[in-house]
Design goal:
The chain is an alpha+beta fold. It has 8 helices and 14 strands. The relative contact order is 0.10.
Length: 429
Amino acid sequence: MATSRSWFSFSRILVRLYLFYILLEPKDFAAAGFKEILVKPDNNDPDNDAQFEVVTHDTDDPLANGSITTASNGDGGRYELCGSDLSFLGPPYGNISTSNMVCSPIWNTFVLRYYQRADNVMTIILSAVYTTGWVGIGFSRNGMMLGSSAMVGWFNRKGQARIKQYYLQGAHESQVIPDKGELPLNNIPPVVALHGAMIHLAFQAKFEHPLGRQPILLAFASRYPTHLHLTKHDDKTAVWFDFSQASVLDIDISQKKNHGILGIIGWGLILPVGAIVARYFKHKDPLWYYLHAGIQFLGFILGLAAVLLGIQLYRSMNAEIPAHRGIGIFVLVLSILQIMAFFLRPNKDSKNRRYWNWYHHWFGRIALFFGALNVILGIQLAGAGNQWKIGYGFLLALTLVAVIVLEASSCMRRRGKSGQPPTSQMNPI
């Protein structure tokens, strides 16, 4: 009877958590501005790293007279922003009629224009307000920076134009590799140009299939690249852009952070603490049992919330990260089996208690190992900063030190008990 009530209560908790998960939803966006500078192929580039150079410059300085026009979400702002002439880009980019190009504000001052032909050749023009530094647009498989390819453009201190493809191999600056990438650029050279307060990056790529819903990375920095190595971005975002409908779905960065925080707290802190209590504090009977059960149940709830939030992220991002997702599901199954073990725990004098102990201990250890492994994998795949790596590394080191100290203390206590003389003396013969 007590067992059926416990199962009923546990089922109600799971149903409430599932309803909470259904209510989680993603969010939306905004944009901006325009005037002129022309470019042509640079045949006299001393460092041989530029594809284009400035040939004419508009003498009116829009940054000095404050002539930046900001687009709003309304039709008037969108028309003013997207209806500007692009002929200054030259052929083939300037030859495409603005009526044929799809134009959409995408993030902050970033505006995306594109035109896709029947042979899947797409012309892409990214515009943004520019002062110094660099501006970039990346194409990702899963909304993550790692493994994506980006087109980045800037004007250096000498006024020379630069535009290059980069392969984002890792989060460190040295892992952002110039002249590498997987964007299928065609033989038409990419172009970067200034038009008043806006920088324009234009390039063509031939894709295997018409682009539909595609994760796009956007970033900018105010510091110039050094020797073609990009400086750290001032700001960045990842969005899902539907090229078939010109619609933007923001990838809520806070959801990714919350997913990581819940995973680290649940699998990196609370569940290991519960396992430590069960292993090293059994001499505090029955307190250790209630602490172990309560702590592990709390860790399970947080781990379940992390998985549900991960499913929400997977659906919104369509992220192809099978290893992280597969390990997460595997660990969730093991944790559910551990919760079931709590309700199916036989009495101490039962013949099955030995097998139950074996099952409970080893399934718990396997779940903790793969949970920690998945946290590390998630931090790596998300391209998280050093603060995440240092924070989890410190937590992991603290847990290992605690286990070593408690294991040594437990061994000493057992040796002390085994070395004590027997409490009862034999009667003399």
